[in-house]
User: Fold this.
Amino acid sequence: MAVSEKPLLAVLRGKKAEKTPVWLMRQAGRYLPEYRELRARKGGFLELATDPDAAAEVTLQPIRRFGFDGAILFSDILMVPFALGQDLRFEAGEGPRLSPPLADTALETLGRVPDRLEPVFATVEKVAASLPVETAFLGFAGSPWTVSTYMVAGQGSREQGETRRYAYRDPGAFAAIIEAISTMTVDYLSRQIEAGVEAVQLFDSWSGSLSPAQFERWVIAPTAGIVERLKRRHPQTPIIGFPKGAGGKLPAYARETGVDAVGLDETVDPAWADAALPSGLPVQGNLDPLALIAGGEALEKGAVHILSTFSGRPHVFNLGHGILPDTPTAHVNALLQLVRR
Assistant:
C-alpha cells in the first residue's frame, strides 16, 4: 500500500475517511502484560527506550494485539535534553530526573551529546521494516515549552512554577533555552522521518499553565518555528500539534503554528472545537482516558458523541491524553469495535 493510501495519513492530509482511523497515546505501555514482562527483563525505562530491539518490540506490541491504524514510536520526550547534555534517569515511582537543572546551571555549560539519539533512529528503522503495510508510523518530540519545564526544574511539576518564574525573570536566557530545544527538535524529527516515520506529533503536555501572552511567546511562536523549519525539509510529512490544556487558546494555536492537525485533550468540548477551529482542519481525540477504564455506557456514550460531532471534518480517534496503566485490554478491544462499527 502506498503511503498516501494509509487511512491515518490520508486523514492527517485533510481527507475525510469512511471509517475513522484510530490510535491511542501511550498505546505501547504498562497496561499491556507483554510490555510489563519485557520491561521487567530489561530493568529501567531508559535501558528499554535506548535498546533498539526492545524499543521496536514495544512499539509493535499494540499493533499485533489490536491492529491500530497508527504505531507511535516508543521513546520519551526527554531524549532531547539528554542529547543537549543533561543527564537523564528515571526514579521508580517518582518519574524522570534531569541534572544539572538549568535553574542552577547555565545552558552554555552543557556539552551536547547528539549521539545519544542514535538508538532512537535505529529503533525507527527496525519498526519501519516490520509494520503492516496499512499501518502508519508516527514519530514525536516534546514541544519546547514542555521540555523546558523539565530542563529548568530538573523534574516534572504540576504548576511549572519554577520555569514560569524563570521565563518572567530572565526572558532572554529563557529564549536561548527554547531556541536550543527547537533547533535540536527539528534535527531530531528530521532524522526520525529520514529513518522511516511518516508523520510526527509535538507533545506540549504543560501548555495549559501559561497566560495568553506567555502561551503566544513560549508555545505558539516556537511551535511555528519548528513547523516551518521541518516543512522546509519534509514538506509532505504531516505534523500533529497537541497543546494539552490550551482550552480557549486552541483556535490561535491552530491558525498560527501551521500544524496539519490538532490534538484535543479530554477537557475540550468537541462541539465547541468543531465550531471554533478552522473548517477542514483535521482533529485528533479526545475520549477521556478514564472513560476507557470505566468501559460500558461511559465508553460508548463518550466515543459516539466524539465520532458524531466530528463526522463533518477529518478526524483521527484518540484519547484526550495517554492510556492509563490500569486500563483493561478488553475495553480497548471494545473501543476499537465501536469506532470501526
Notes: The chain has a mean pLDDT of 96. The chain has one domain: 21-273.
